[in-house]
Design brief:
Blueprint: E1 2-6, H1 10-22, E2 26-30, H2 33-42, E3 47-50, E4 53-54, E5 57-58, H3 59-69, E6 76-80, H4 85-93, E7 98-101, H5 106-120, E8 129-132, E9 135-138, E10 143-146, E11 149-150, H6 155-166, E12 172-173, H7 174-182, H8 192-203, E13 212-217, E14 221-226
Helix pairs in contact: 6-7, 6-8
């Protein structure tokens, strides 16, 4: 997963970030709310981890902003010293998905993160098979079919198509796609994503008449949108 981590205790932040990176997650750390929220306006993430007590703001205020402005319900995990029942109830009632009190253990933290990934549909299906309308994706052998016909995709095209379908309806930034599919760091000036998007759109026939739209969002990235092809009806993910 791509994780944004808000924590003002730098040694603790470094430790937890190392745990997450050690489990093959991508993690970007922020020590204050202002740059964290600026990043969320520009980039897409799979999970947010928030401390409660922060300089100039609070994790609860950040959570309220996220729930009021984020275009999809991104999972939020609190990691904080605040351990009263009232605090836990408050955070969960405001929209947090999980709550951990410090100090946290590595094993439990990783287990909570992975559980949130499963609940949000980010982690792979146990069967390795996804069905999106006419499209069927099998991750065990990296194949994709449309109406039963195998679509010839390169390894990177397959990974990018899988990412788009699993996150259908959600805006994904170019940096997010570069990190997840190519393993490249953020901020690189490259047309790689745009070139592969163009190929995927053509090879998979992602057109409105086929029930899908692969939309470019200026200065941000791309969103795969499912469109109802019949009045009152729509394809669904199985």
């Amino acid at each position: 997963m791509r994780i944004a981590f808000l924590e003002d205790d730098l040694p603790q932040a470094e430790m937890i970030k190392n745990w997450l990176v050690g489990e093959n997650h991508s993690c970007r750390h922020y020590a204050a709310a202002k740059p964290f929220l600026h990043e969320l306006r520009q980039e897409s993430y799979d999970l947010l981890i928030l401390d409660w007590e922060l300089p100039e703001s609070s994790g609860l205020e950040v959570l309220r902003w996220v729930r009021g402005h984020a275009e999809w319900r991104i999972p939020v995990l609190f990691m904080t010293h605040r351990d009263s029942e009232n605090d836990i109830v408050k955070a969960l009632s405001e929209g947090a998905d999980d709550y951990m009190t410090k100090p946290v253990s590595r094993e439990i933290a990783i287990a909570r993160v992975n559980a949130l990934a499963r609940r949000s549909g980010i982690s792979p299906e146990a069967t390795g098979i996804y069905q999106f309308g006419d499209y069927r994706i099998t991750t065990k052998n990296n194949t994709m079919t449309r109406n039963g016909q195998v679509v010839d995709l390169t390894e990177k095209e397959f990974k990018l198509a899988l990412m788009l379908f699993v996150n259908a309806g959600r805006l994904l930034s170019r940096d997010h796609m570069l990190e997840q599919v190519w393993g490249l760091g953020p901020g690189l000036a490259t047309r790689t994503v745009d070139t592969h998007i163009s190929r995927i759109r053509r090879k998979l026939a992602l057109m409105p008449e086929n029930g899908w739209r692969l939309k470019a969002v200026y200065h941000h990235g791309y969103r795969l949108e499912q469109i109802s092809r019949e009045p009152g009806g729509e394809d669904s993910r199985e």
